[in-house]
Amino acid sequence: MNNTLHDSEQDQLRAIHTMLASGHASVHLERHTFLLWGLSAAFLILAVPELFSRERFTDPFELLVWQNSFISLVLIGTGYLDYRWTHQRRHARDESLSFVQRQVTKVWWMLIALVVVINIGMNLYGGGSLFYGITLVLIGIGIYVHGLFSRQMLTWGGGLMMLLGLALLATTPEIEQQEWIAASAFGIGLPSLSILVNRTSVTTGRRELFLSLFWLGLVLSPASIAISLSSQTNYTGWPEVSLEDYLMGGPPRDGEGLIVTLPAGTQMPLNIKLKGDTFIPADQAVLRMQLIRPLSIPVSTGEVENRLRIGQGRWKSGYAYRIRDWRVTSRLSPAKGPEMDLSLKLQFEN
Amino acid sequence: MTSLELDPLLHQPIRTRLTAYLAARGETTFTELRQVLEVTDGNLDGHIKKLLAAGYLRARKQRGKGRPQTLYLLSETGLQAFQTYIQILQALLPEQANERESEEVAPADESGPSPQTT
Asked: Around Cβ A349, how many Cβ atoms within 10 Å?
């Protein structure tokens, strides 16, 4: 009799525990949310570098203002659409947004604002090669936190996105490759994650691991295909001419394209423009650099294309360079007076 | 009611689960409660009416596009009664089971959103 009484009380406590857990994990992301944010992010990643290039905007401050205004506008528009559609759908189903979901949404907005602030910071102070890695980590954290109050599969997705971001930060591949990986992680990864989450209400650890690996393959395969296709721009049919021939023959006629190859040892003047808040701007300095490896440059309709190839490597963007270990030091001695040294490492390959 | 007497209003499986869910989730609609508790409209309506009459629940109308939504949330009285109910349940259990269960139910009075929060 006493045991039966205890069983009933234990059952009540278990039922309470189950309902508490159910109430806490009541956050539910609509499918359109994944789709909207994923496609918007992928669009921004692929379109912003094209729309707001250094060729179009020569003034860095102008570029900063227009680029970030555009990004903010797209994100706010996406947020507004998501808010409207989510409320409409919930209302139609006579469901409400839980307290936890409202709080998690605030965290989301803070993370997204942080991504925009980081982008502004990188526009001003450099470090752009880390942007996509950091963004993936931050959004991964957001998805992971969301998953804690929702389906467990989301925590796996968030964890994988963080890992992907950390891998980009550790290996820092070329910016074009990072763009494709990040665009695929958002544009394909988020919508596919919504399908996996909605189809796996009850899962085992092994099944979640399998689905996570499947998701990773789904994200990385299109990215690697896109990277491979974009690097296969091999300028087939374009004649290769030496620098000497190019200089003798002048620029090609309209519609003609050619590859100019600069052999190792070619002298390449490096024009330096320096300005700041302490000196009169200097734009006459020229450093005579010498190539240690052959360099090929495509020239189309008289214009140099913003791509290059080092040796027999693959074609890459002219922006695929890194400035590392830069340093400014100043000295003062009775023999030489005041002097300044500027040192940096310019790399076109990782 | 003696100190170890269970609240008869909460000591009913559906009402216990309903109260626990609201304690964790905050406010919710009739449809969601029906789905979570897996009960019929009439059954749920009866339980909600009892809890509303006792002042354990509060109902709030939310207007927007289309018909207004009714949201249900635990009142301060309801939350206190629920916490007391859990304490009494735990006190009635043998010590060993009590330790295990209290670990599981602990979040009820610590991390659940305030019933006043909307």
From this structure: 12
